[in-house]
Protein 1
Amino acid sequence: MIMDEIALDKIDRREPFALYVHLPFCHYRCHYCDFYASAGVDPQLRRKVIARILREITNQLAYLHMERLVSVYVGGGTPSMIDGDQLSALIDLVQSYHPQQVTIEVNPEDVSKDLIDALGLARWQNLRVSMGMQTFHQASLDAVGRKVTTQQMFDALELLSPYKARLSLDLIAGLPFHTQAIVESDMHRLVTYRPAHLSLYALAMEEGTVLTYRHHPHLPNEEERSIQWQASQRMLLASGYQQYEVSNYALTPNDYSLQNTHYWQLKPYIGIGPGAVGTLPLLDGSALRITGRREFGVWSNPDDINLWHRDMIERESFIFEHYMMGFRTALGISKAILKERFGDAGLAPWEHLQKSKWREFLQEDDRYITLTEQGRLVLDAILLDLL
Ligand code: SF4
């Protein structure tokens, strides 16, 4: 089982639970991506792994006494590439826990009437779709190995347009061949389409990815990438989007991602699937981090019960994680959660910052502490001071 009986009694159950399901299968490997996912997996093996994931959702949630969930996120990988019958079974299963919100990631090239039917988008009003667009510039898509055409993107947006109040789109600024004009044209197209939610990232050079070891001659440098990201950010704000986290924007607070908000507040969640991560706060202020083993062989073998790695996060480290995650958000960190979980020690880092050179970047109200917008720009330096 995901944890032992002794630890089970120590779970802090004061906050609702969320579930993350990881489907680590892709059609191809994008050159900037460091997520745990594989391309070209044999379809039979993939079906076996997914069947096991479905079984483990039922098993582990029963074992952990999680009869209700506040939110479910199905990510990857590319969840939209799995067989329609398994996709429907997965959505039906997670909906049986009555979550307020379910989100599933899709790739534009997979969007079809059949996919929309398999997901039950018309039936499940709490179901959100998160689609990875990245850019509409074909040369940039080609340069990072994304095998999708801009025409496929337009077709996907058209098919999903009845659902755009439940649609989130992902964009990346600073891809090869990007100029400020291209990035602004991407933004213009998107804000005209007007999805309820957007995630905007500056291209990050992650270790071990193709982009880091194979120099691309048309890659904007770090400063250009950051300028392009900031220009995009200004356009989104000017178009009426609210920035509720460093990379996330929504039309209204009702459009915020419940799952992300849950993570940023370090509320309890479990992850099911190869490489999926979950964090369960314990009553003594520490936490248990549980990660699904990555080997597909383990997940496809019905007799193998050794599916998880477990790591303890000590109380001090867990307090730091609250600041690291919470300071990314406009809302910030709940004082009540800090107090409830850690007593006076929860607010000690905040008191330290109030006496430091960073005090001008702090803001608080009765319920939350956070950084100002300027403060979020120097987040890394502020966090270093807390280490
Ligand atoms: S970016 Fe998405 S589609 Fe591309 S390799 Fe990573 S998980 Fe797969």
Protein 2
Amino acid sequence: MAVMSVAGRPGGGSRARAEPADVIPMLSRHVLTDGYDVVCDLTASTGSTIVDARTGTRYLDLYSFFASAPLGINPPALLGDPEFLTELARAAVNKPANPDMATAAYAEFVETFARVLGDPELPHLFFVEGGSAAVENALKCAFDWKSRHNEAHGRPAELGGRVLHLRSAFHGRGGYTLSVTNTEPVKTARFPVFDWPRVDCPAVTFPCTGAALDAVVAAERRALAQAEEAFARHRHDIACFLAEPIQAEGGDNHLRGEFLRAMAALCERHDALFVVDEVQTGVGLTGSAWAHTQLGLRPDVVAFGKKVQLGGVMAGRRVDEVADNVFRLPGRISSTWGGGLVDMVRSRRMLEIMESERLFDRAAVLGSDLLAGLEELARRHPRLLSNARGRGLMCAVDLPDRALRDEVVRLLREREHVLLLPAGERALRFRPALTIGAEELAAGVRALDRVLTHLVSPESLVPAEPEAAEKASPPVTATQEKGPL
Ligand SMILES: Cc1ncc(COP(=O)(O)O)c(C=O)c1O
């Protein structure tokens, strides 16, 4: 660790220098360092391989910065494009206040977003930094809408401040989102929250046939009855129903389109907006721009974040029934930066690449192979693995309990050098970059197979040299990997 003089450079000054071995001790003096015990080498890491700068250890990355790096690390298409790097540097030297000061870079990003991810029926866009702020602005839109809608119909404008939502939802850790997040208690305990109506989450168990289907249909009926009851109890006071199309952090809980569409119909009947949180599911992970389209949903507001590189909302449909909505009346929702310009420049180029490489279609194809691999693994380890599920690359499996799941995550990281995320009570979730290679995914499944085999008979786990990361191939383009899709 050192502080170096940079006197020879314009402006002079001193800058801190961190050698790889210093990084975590340096950080831990001031910030909580409870993440991976890895110092990411930002030069050597590439695609779906994260290299530890201290040791050179290579990890197969099946988590992609919590599903936020659509093209993996150091995508060659970005790194090898001097024109893009110049644009990025120009945007990065400043941090303009986007809502008040227009730039060409801002306009080009918005235009590209609308082309690649937009929905003509959701024409209003709003940008902010982070997924939690995205969801909170979606909620503000709904509160404002409901209050004005009440007023226009001769009802009290003070009503309309409640959010109907699901158990085991995760929507972030901000002032409003804490009240709708209810996964692990440590994330919400001791913080003041609103007492907003919450209904059971009728998660699907796979394969969803026979008794499993009957059970989910019964659970959906109960949840819909709870929702009806909430609307009756809080007359004119529920602004919206908010849900992730697939609950991610809560355990990769899949919901049937039938259920979500019934909730949307209920919202329409009770003059509440239908809001989906696509912060984790959005931008190709499930095999299309948004998961909600695959479920046949027509939301009024969609919150996004992560792979977009910044947060935000797109809105329309019933929002426009109220003339002075938050997208029309200045000052109702805004922030200094309105999403960072440097993130917008990176996002624009990433979206162009996702579009030209057809990475969403590719995620659908690769994801079905991954799911088939996980289903096969569940057949081979019936006592350990169950409920293999997935949409696109958003795949998951269940272990029997939290302790075993946590042990699998640990063994994968320490012995196999594979980074895979837990979710909910006992799930393992795959969150690879959209550019991951088919062989890398297969290597991840083989690593999981070895760990499960080891759990049954510990002496069977031989590999001193983890195969998955060592053999991880360099990032590939969609066309190289799978042929034109
Ligand atoms: C569905 C969902 N909503 C909201 C958030 C919050 O996003 P952020 O951590 O960027 O605030 C997350 C984060 O994981 C998420 O998965």
